[in-house]
Write a structure and sequence with these properties.
This protein is an all-alpha fold. It folds into 3 domains: 9-202, MFS general substrate transporter like domains (Growth Hormone, Chain: A); 203-256; 263-496, MFS general substrate transporter like domains (Growth Hormone, Chain: A), CATH 1.20.1250.20. It has helices at residues 3-9, 13-45, 53-77, 79-98, 103-131, 135-166, 171-174, 176-184, 204-227, 232-254, 262-266, 268-298, 303-309, 311-328, 335-352, 365-385, 396-433, 441-473, 481-487. The longest helix has 38 residues, at 396-433.
Length: 496
């Protein structure tokens, strides 16, 4: 079917973009909006410091772990049908989370949101690709889609702060319901599903191995806070998780329709791009989680003020991405951008280790945000563009989904690990400085800051190590005209 006929069949393609953009906004919004509400939710539901990270990781783990399977399901059931299913499921899970009477219900709701987001995200991207077939219009459409992805995080920060402050933290979840209902009207204009000649096979064993392995590792990191890193239970979980992931890799070698063809990740350019994204998310999630608690609990900021205080980081991300990386990407090898970006992010998190309870926003939080944000912009734009570098046409979808998976999984494991580091350091500080066994409010506050500093220190080391690894592995040279055009294609993921 030629381009003219395709567009004749769907003259309302810009309306399609509007509904798909709403769905994308909802997905991106939910990454940051809950971070701002987390201190209030923790107090309201009596969530422990060791368990608080699960409110973040339940979403990102389910999203990242099921994303590849979600793309296959969209191929199997049809993109339009999967889009609607994802929207309605996300709305239902959000309503459940908003009404959650306890931590367990909230956790289940967040996992449900992630699972339905894993259906929604690949279906939305596929529908956009099918709708816009003319090159100039497609570039414009994906530019708008990318702007929603980049700006949605900032909207989530401010919206989450306003809803928490003036209504209740629960509205940070309820707000998804009207957005999903509005986006569901896209059913009327979205391209109709075409029944494929042969249904794609579903790699259910691969999905189970990947998800259970990742959950085991994340749970081990969270249990280390209470059990200790030398606990047999923690060791056992880590060993089981590693064995399951090894089993996943072995299964992908022999599966008839592998969830993740190994040729996608064994290419050095693509593999190191996925690695850069995964490890970069350790720094980004650390900044959002611990600076949120620092500003609200230690400094006494309101939820809205906290959201606004994060905006400079978003501006820095956009400056690093659009102001520098996008301009240099066609001219220089990718590691020339990724390695300095990771080193900047490492320097920013190292700066954050110096923040004390009495440090002003301008002297502590703001410089750390700007340095980390600018570095992340350089890393993410370059890595996302090279996520499909040199990939076969048949693997383009799974290669794009893999970078999203790397983003969410890196954030999940990083959040669990760093939260354990923070809570353990805080507990040790309070034990050492409590007078007569009863810590004063000042000791508790200083203990929190000490825990955050320890977590930032570990994040800084991880980011520096990532820079070294990527510098060694990413062997792609200066792009040619054709290669740079190929690398600058469809945006594969969002920065949340």
């Amino acid at each position: 079917m030629d381009t003219a006929k395709q567009q004749e069949l769907n003259p309302r393609r810009w309306l399609v973009l509007f509904f798909i953009g709403l769905a994308q906004l909802m997905i991106v919004l939910d990454v940051t909006i809950v971070n701002i509400a987390l201190p209030s939710a923790q107090e309201d539901l009596g969530i422990s410091d060791g368990d608080r990270q699960w409110v973040v990781t339940a979403y990102s783990l389910a999203f990242g772990g099921l994303l590849l399977l979600g793309g296959r399901i969209a191929d199997y059931l049809g993109r339009r049908r999967t889009f609607l299913t994802g929207l309605l499921g996300f709305a239902g899970a959000s309503a459940l989370g908003g009404a959650a009477p306890d931590f367990g219900t909230l956790l289940a709701a967040r996992a449900g949101q992630g699972a339905f987001a894993a259906l929604l995200a690949p279906a939305a991207l596929s529908l956009l690709t099918l709708t816009f077939t003319e090159s100039r219009e497609r570039a414009k459409a994906f530019g708008i889609f990318g702007a929603i992805a980049a700006g949605g995080g900032a909207i989530g920060l401010v919206t989450g702060g306003a809803l928490t402050e003036y209504l209740d933290w629960r509205w940070c979840l309820y707000v998804n319901v009207p957005i999903a209902i509005a986006a569901a009207f896209g059913w009327l204009v979205l391209p109709r599903d075409v029944r494929p000649e042969a249904r794609p096979r579903m790699d259910i064993p691969g999905a189970l191995l990947a998800v259970t392995g990742l959950v085991s590792i994340v749970y081990a990191c969270s249990q280390a806070e209470s059990e200790g890193w030398d606990s047999r239970w923690v060791y056992g979980l880590l060993i089981v998780g590693a064995a399951l992931l090894a089993g996943f890799i072995l299964w992908q070698r022999v599966a008839a329709a592998p969830l993740l063809p190994l040729r996608v990740i064994t290419d050095r350019a693509r593999g190191s791009a996925y690695l850069a994204v995964a490890l970069a998310m350790v720094g980004m999630f650390a900044m959002f989680l611990f600076l949120t608690y620092y500003m609200q609990v230690v400094q006494g900021y309101s939820a809205l003020k906290t959201g606004v205080a994060f905006l400079p980081m978003t501006v820095a991300v956009l400056a690093g991405a659009g102001g520098l990386a996008t301009r240099l990407l066609p001219k220089v090898p990718p590691r020339v951008l990724v390695v300095p970006g990771l080193l900047l992010a490492s320097a920013g998190t190292a700066w954050a280790t110096q923040i004390e309870a009495s440090t002003s926003y301008a002297a502590g939080v703001l410089p750390a945000e700007l340095i980390v944000g600018f570095g992340m912009g350089m890393v993410m734009v370059t890595s996302m563009n090279y996520a499909t570098h040199g990939v076969r046409e048949a693997d383009a979808g799974v290669a794009s989904a893999t970078v999203n998976t790397s983003q969410q999984i890196g954030g999940s494991i990083g959040t669990a690990l760093l939260n354990t580091v923070a809570t353990s350091a805080t507990a040790e500080y309070v034990r050492e400085h409590a007078a007569g066994g009863r810590p004063t409010p000042g000791v508790v506050r200083d203990g929190l800051v000490d825990g955050f500093s320890a977590a930032f220190g570990v994040a800084s080391v991880i980011l520096a190590a990532a820079a070294v690894l990527v510098g060694v592995l990413m062997n792609t040279g200066r792009p040619t005209r054709d290669a740079s055009a190929e690398a600058g294609g469809v945006p594969a993921a969002h920065l949340g």
